[in-house]
């Protein structure tokens, strides 16, 4: 919604910094359209704890889309492997989406400083 708002509300070509965790998918069309009108730069904020699911045993989880619940053993190798595979798949999705749209982007960790990633991004854009 924010990208659609940017495209429709801001008439003058601008540099737009989109700061997000980009956890959702399905924004590729909106980001392409926004980047045609503006110079969009994606700043992905992530927390290192989101890259690994803690092995806490059996838990009940609910699918946000379907509302269905099920029990999951977070300590199982299969679950840990599937979680890691999903992380890698999502990372590829983001890289592909930004690349196809021609958008400069960088990752900024919550447990490290933001200066170095931003400096590298600006050097790459120069």
Description of the structure:
This protein is α/β, with parallel strands linked by helices and 126 residues long. Helix content is 43%, strand content 24%. The chain has one domain. It has helices spanning 2-9, 28-37, 77-101, 115-125, and strands spanning 15-20, 39-46, 58-62, 69-73, 104-109. A three-stranded parallel β-sheet has the order 1-2-5, sandwiched between helices. Strands 3-4 form a two-stranded antiparallel ribbon. Helix 1 (2-9) runs parallel beside helix 2 and helix 2 (28-37) runs parallel beside helix 3. The chain starts with a helix and ends with a helix.
Descriptive keywords:
alpha/beta; three-stranded parallel β-sheet; 4 helices; 5 strands; about 45% helix
Give the averaged pLDDT, no decimals.
91
Low-confidence stretches: none
The biggest sheet amounts to: 3 strands, parallel
User: How many domain units?
Assistant: 1
Give me the secondary-structure topology.
Elements: H1 2-9, E1 15-20, H2 28-37, E2 39-46, E3 58-62, E4 69-73, H3 77-101, E5 104-109, H4 115-125
Parallel strand pairs: 1-2, 2-5
Antiparallel strand pairs: 3-4
Helix pairs in contact: 1-2, 2-3
